[in-house]
């Protein structure tokens, strides 16, 4: 039934709409299973994701032994006694959606923003430009006008394909991603313009060219690897093979600087002003938006009780969940805020809402600024002094952006004058080595030895496919030591967090090579799924390590931040659960789309109504 291509190596839930039906499906790569739920498109079933996840987990766990012994195909002839389990899970899922129904925030599709998006999308498809639904700031209006034509044609084509199969009015996943990306860049460019010098060709920049630089599948010419040499050859890339401007993104940035994530908080997100007279409504209408606005009970100078705070906390919890913070973590966060504030005497002119909000904001900033900060450049210099390469290992599931962000980090290191050896230790996924080779060539084209005193700034160390990744990493590190490379970046094969043999292999690679930094790469996009991956990666590294003090994940690379608009909750969940810092944030597909985390910016986006 599924005519859309199934993503091969992802663990998330996907959907496919055909005429009146929507199918949601989930792949389990470990056991080669597909779980599909079909339902009438017009039904907005909020529990489908939960149902499919629960069925997946329960089915997998129930038949795990058989799968391991016979494989998924071996079970085809068998019978499953799963009907009762399924009915129970279905009931549970239905019940859970009912329980949550009254408190659930508006979904993205129901929100005003999504309507705005539909308009944007319509404009980009060549129709007469329409007036923006909401134009809060005049300064943004000019930009917004040009933004309408900024949707890459490639994406539009993909959208068209998808919408041909489905409902035109319903946003496809790609459309939502595209919209979020636009929104991200709109904000980012605005913020960037504020803090940096104005761009001379800003007009041109605003009408962004479509990003055709899609590694891996779009450009046959780029993907012609037939002439490539192996084992660390540092060929330069013929210039016509790629557009350096596109690979670089923002031309006006300062080379080598890792900019902070910037986020412009909305008018709606402005701090609620102190209400001086409780009997009069606040002069600033809608100060905190619908979310907190209705809860402005003044407490005067009495001490805060649980009863005062509970309605506010409930709203905040839902708000956090709607921003993609894992539900359990949202609950814990609100609980800790309540504990902190209970019994506290409030100032006369303070509202419960603003007090709770302030405490939550502080807690969130603290979570995002874990005690151990990772300063890669300083640590690389330290390793240099000891005449050894600084080694970073990247791990994560497939498709999250490991290789792309590894390449961005290489670029940043090179711009800081450090030479990089990329160790191709994903010896598993077809095309993984070639993808890194393409990056190596491009990076060398952007930073040829001539510009670096004859020094080759980036090289690929690879041994093809099927070999032991830990061994290749080890060889690469010793090669880097001998050749005087400053940094070794080890790409590893994507693996699902539940795949015990592959997790053991990763633990071995890390134990044997003792990298300076183990980075977990996770998408901001998937929210709770990323948290699950991270927790399980960490646990698996602990469980499968042979060392007495196992080496765990040191930090996080949070990718695809440009695709989530203000649903930044994954950043909170991931740092909360592991206390590990987010070292890098991926914000797009060019080499410059790398940022460092700015806790305040993330919290501002999170609190935004
Ligand atoms: P890997 O399998 O983990 O190595 O993932 P890849 O590096 O191949 O990336 C998978 C896809 O995600 C590619 O199409 C990348 O261009 C894209 N990607 C990676 N990082 C980002 C990011 O920060 N933003 C966006 N929008 N796309 C990204």
From TrEMBL:
Keyword Plastid applies: no
Transmembrane segments: none
Record's GO cellular component terms: signal recognition particle receptor complex
Keywords: Endoplasmic reticulum, GTP-binding, Membrane, Nucleotide-binding, Receptor
UniProt-recorded name of the protein: SRPRA protein
Top-rank taxon: Eukaryota
Residues of the SRP54-type proteins GTP-binding domain: 581-594
Main location: endoplasmic reticulum
Biased composition (Basic and acidic residues): 188-205, 248-260
The species this protein was found in: Pycnonotus jocosus (Red-whiskered bulbul)
